[in-house]
Amino acid sequence: MSMFSIFDISSSAVSAQAQRLNVVASNLANVDAVAGPDGKTYKARQVVFQTTPMGDDSAAGVKVSAIQESDVPGRKVHDPSNPLADADGYVTHSNVNPVEEMVNMISASRSYQNNVEVMNTAKTLLLKTLQMGQ
């Protein structure tokens, strides 16, 4: 594996984690959502990662292969005065768990930061190697 493959691998991870952060932000924005524009309640989304080959060598990066909706039922709140209430007076809210999403956000943010640090370290090592040749 060449030293330049590190940049390809880390950049693929940074891109994937950025997409994960966007999905987490969307989930957090809809924690208290009752119904979306289509009339259905918002369902939490999760990013699915997949390894992907990077170039001719045996290096593998990461990409987002899918964004899946959660099958967990939304929480029901008894509010018969709400116009979106069902026949029993319950309103179905989104199934987003804010605690899980915050943990997911911290994990994605740290992964993003770690991959940026890997690229910075690789850049520093390459510059030091060039300076040794002078």
TrEMBL record:
Q: Which InterPro entries match?
A: Flag_bb_rod_N, Flg_bb/hook_C_dom, FlgC
The entry's localization annotation reads: Bacterial flagellum basal body
Task: Pinpoint the Flagellar basal body rod protein N-terminal domain residues.
Answer: 8-36
Keywords assigned: Bacterial flagellum, Cell projection, Cilium, Flagellum
Give a GO biological-process term: bacterial-type flagellum-dependent swarming motility
Q: Which GO terms describe its cellular component?
A: bacterial-type flagellum basal body, rod
For this protein, the record's Pfam families field holds: Flg_bb_rod (PF00460), Flg_bbr_C (PF06429)
List each copy of the Flagellar basal-body/hook protein C-terminal domain by range: 88-132
Family to which the UniProt record says this protein belongs:
Belongs to the flagella basal body rod proteins family.
**What NCBIfam families does the record point to?**
FlgC
User: Protein name, please?
Assistant: Flagellar basal-body rod protein FlgC
The protein's organism comes out as: Simplicispira hankyongi
Gene encoding this chain? flgC
